[in-house]
Amino acid sequence: MANPASVTFLSLAAGALGYCLYFDYQRRHNVEFRKSIYHKKRQAEKAARLQNEASKVEKTILLKKKLTESLIAHPLTTENKEQSFIEEVTAAEKLASLPDREIDAAIHFYRALSVYPEPTAILEIYQKSVPAEIYELIMLLTAIYPPANITSLLSESNGSILETE
């Protein structure tokens, strides 16, 4: 006598194989079935794209809120920049090693960037040494609220471009 588990397994396997054969036949021979598959695929892609855009907007709003809170709670100091840079980078590296603390780490890296005298050099270092998702957040933070040293750098470069033309 056959084992009930093996009979059940064989029945499920035969049903799955039958459905695969039916699906393949419909895909090859039924134009409407192919169209419905195509439309479902397009709808799924569109839904994923819209969800991705919505999550980016939510992430930007969250970053802006956390950055504002951080700058209000601990304003950037103009004196003793070297010490504050070291403190911010140290805190950022500690947070970067912890799971689910990428935003806080990015804010500390951003704060370190804000006090560093050469922002382009530190951004290159960040790009090489910081994980990609945190670097992306740092760039988003600089786009949301550009630090004064980057703003002055951009205005100097725009002025030199205008003078040469």
Automatic annotation (TrEMBL):
It holds the Pfam family MAS20. The keyword Lipid biosynthesis does not apply. It is found in: Mitochondrion outer membrane. Transmembrane segments: none annotated. GO terms for biological process: intracellular protein transport; protein import into mitochondrial matrix; protein insertion into mitochondrial outer membrane; protein targeting; tRNA import into mitochondrion. InterPro entries: MAS20, Tom20_dom_sf. Keywords: Membrane, Mitochondrion, Mitochondrion outer membrane, Protein transport, Transmembrane, Transmembrane helix, Transport. It is a single-pass membrane protein. Its main location: mitochondrion. One of its GO terms (molecular function) is mitochondrion targeting sequence binding. GO terms for cellular component: mitochondrial outer membrane translocase complex. Gene3D superfamilies: Mitochondrial outer membrane translocase complex, subunit Tom20 domain. Belongs to the Tom20 family. This is Mitochondrial import receptor subunit TOM20. It comes from Pichia membranifaciens NRRL Y-2026.
